[in-house]
Design goal:
This protein is mainly beta and about 280 residues long. It has helices at about 5, 35-50, 185-190, 195-200; strands spanning about 10, 15-20, 55-60, 70-80, 85-95, 95-105, 130, 145-150, 170-175, 205-210, 210-215, 225-235, 240-250, 255-265, 270, 280.
């Protein structure tokens, strides 16, 4: 299975229109399309329409698509040059816009290259780490289709006690169903974890809803697992901001994802908020 099949993305007779049936398997436990799946579908659609690989893509999340709905993805190739395409994808359910994605796609034949951000040292192998715990039953959702192992982070609910952390979470992640290689769409899905990092960093029983997600893609290499090095930069005025470095098992930095999110607390899960006071 490749990433398009995993998402359920379908072409139409119009090469500029794609459709994404929204099902539980690409949705959150809250019952709406997972933001990373929306971005991944838009990126895959723009790659399919342009015939080029994504370099950069940024999504602005505007509304929610729910299981049972069908999201149309309309692709515009604003500039289609000799080496680079600038494209836009408008994703909507009927006349309700869900997200808008802008992207650059293409390749340039240039010898110069380099990787200056390094994978953290002494990282244990994925299968030597504990599975990421879930406080709710997420079977059948996008979270249930991922295999995630905690390298650095709070593994028990009781550890979310309102005590701030250092802003870093390390997580091995893979999508077992995607066996045809990591691509931009796969990394779009795996990179949508700044909200999770916010909850971990604040020590709260919560996370957030994404306002945006910007994916920057470098060198893609064969890898089963991807290390998510989540860095939360700041939380103010009810919003969190951070980024994710995505490393292959051999240490290659394949992509980065940066996000802002609205801070949310988990429903029916009383616990301390960022001030140390108990949330009811």
């Amino acid at each position: 299975m490749d990433s398009r099949q995993f998402l359920g993305l379908q072409p139409t007779h119009n090469p500029h229109r794609w459709v994404l049936p929204v099902v539980q398997g690409i949705s959150t436990g809250g019952g709406f399309l997972f933001g990373g799946c929306g971005l991944g579908a838009a990126v895959a659609a723009m790659e399919g329409t342009s015939g080029r690989k994504a370099v950069w893509a940024t999504a602005q999340y505007l509304s929610y698509a729910k299981p049972g709905e069908v999201m149309d993805i309309d692709v515009t190739l604003a500039v289609h040059g000799r080496q680079i395409t600038q494209a836009r994808a408008v994703c909507h359910v009927g006349d309700r816009e869900i997200l808008t994605v802008n992207a650059a796609l293409g390749d340039r034949d240039l010898e110069e290259n380099g990787q200056f951000e390094k994978m953290p040292l002494d990282i244990p192998k994925p299968l030597d780490c504990k599975e990421r715990p879930h406080v709710l039953d997420w079977s059948g959702t996008i979270s249930g289709r991922m295999d995630q192992r905690m390298v650095k982070g709070r593994e028990e609910l009781e550890e979310l006690d309102g005590t701030p952390g250092d802003g870093q979470v390390l997580l091995w992640s893979r999508i077992p169903e995607v066996i045809e290689g990591v691509d931009a769409a796969t990394l779009s899905i795996l990179g949508d974890f700044v909200p999770m990092g916010v909850g971990q960093s604040l020590g709260i029983r919560g996370g957030g809803n994404s306002l945006d997600n910007t994916l920057r893609i470098g060198k893609l290499v064969p890898t089963e697992w991807v290390l998510l090095d989540i860095r939360i930069h700041m939380v103010e005025r009810g919003f969190g901001h951070g980024l994710v470095h995505m490393f292959a098992e051999d240490g290659t930095l394949m992509a980065t994802a940066s996000q802002s999110c609205i801070i949310r607390f988990w429903r029916d899960m009383p616990g301390p908020g960022p001030s140390g006071k108990v949330k009811k």
